[in-house]
Amino acid sequence: MSRHANTREFTDLLTAADPARLFIIGGMFLVIAGMIFGDLYAIFILHPNISNIGREMGAAVAAAAAGDPAAVFSHFGAVGNFLENAGTKKDAHVHIIHAGYLAFVLAFLQPWVALGKGHKILLAKAFLWAAVVLPVAIFLIHYVGLVYSPLQSIGWASIFADLSGLVLIIVLAVELVGMWRYMRGNGDRVRSVFLLGGRNSRALLAGGIALVLVGFLFGAYYACIHLEEHECRDLIILADLMEQAYARESAALDQGLAAYGGLQGERGVMIAAHAHVIELGLLALMMAIVQPYVFLSRTWRRRLVWMMLGGSVVLPIAIYSEIRYGLLAGGVADFAGLMVILALFGMLIGVLRHTGKVDAEEGEES
Amino acid sequence: MTGSQKILLSGGLALAILGMAYGLWYALVDEHPTLERMGVSLASAFAEVAKGEMGQARESLKIYGETRFEYVREVHIHGHLVALSTLLLILGLYFNQLAFSERIRLYLASLLLFGTAVLPLGSLLEIFLTGPVPKAVALLGAVSVIGGLGAVAVGFLRSAERSRRD
Q1: Spatial CA neighbour of A126 closest among A176, A181, A179, A172
Q2: What is the pTM of this model?
């Protein structure tokens, strides 16, 4: 452990037999997979879907103006289909990343969980399996639908998603019981101090807290100023569209549809900027703890940290700028997302190298 | 593990479980009917326009607005509870390194836990109550979390300053 300055306080959680290794590596894979999926979702599904929804919405309103209720239902059915397509993919993206975050946290909680090592490894495996099944099942909801489903409104994909969610909850509950046992004096008293003294850890810690704070402040601003105004405006535009369709004012309908599309874009961008800045802040905070396990040269560790922080700052700003700059800002957001993914991937390589080193040292000792 | 870490880690884990359990219950019981009601009410509103029944159309639009309001809050509760409890867990891991006395850290941990529990509660109350109370509850939660996190930032700055001096 010569690379670590404060080795007297450093507890290596990445030994071969430690469940923390499963949680950390599994968590990093989950977050990377979720981010790659999110980038693909933004590029290939989100934007085409918005134009499809706009087209079908326009056709539905035109059908209302033409006095054709059957066509209205048909076009709104298509809108629902497109919304489900995009919604399940966004949910898959969010759930896989959150499962990864929880895996990280559980990794570092392990010294304080008073359960047998075998049980802890079993819990880690159950958690990671469920964390993989959950987003895959959510992704499949749109495609599987209600085929062969024993239930009226919930399909097999939803059933598997719910079951894997239940497994995650059970694992967390058992870990909580283990922690409660530790607090009551059970288990080994391991001195678990996470090193945050290095410059890289400090930079990620400061950047992470700043990002989360900015995200919270922006969220509070959105909730106080825009949330209800957007909800009111949504209903006003829809009511106007109904009146215009009734009066068959086609020019006003086009304007109303454009305003409705603009509002959906504005709302989507604000919520996405708020969510992403917080998520990336949380990631930076977690990566601050992982730094002692990133077995790379000092220069590369530094590069990866700044790449992650740079991408984390640019991504939400670019998302927010989509209101004004459209797809250009969207492209910058995708690139910033790629920066974060590459930085995380680099850190994962460092962690894998660290585990290799630990395994080699353990092999030599035995 | 210090007392403040116990509050953040056990409280964070308990709230994460609560948030996930709420999400599971919502997905199983309420999400499908809510989405169905939302879609049908909006489509019905325009179909009624097509039939020339404007009074009925306005009624359907009202149902759509109410259902959407409820749906947004329900998703907020699940999302905010899980995200905020993840923050508590992460902070709990290295809360003992904040450059404050343990007494202040205990107050801070309690404030963060309180805010994390109360912010989604405000969204939940908005579904059932009208008037300023739900908003005040959500605002109290938001202020607690933001204030607590601001203090955490100061604590880490002081800690970094100390280690630089040493």
Answers
A1: A172
A2: 0.90
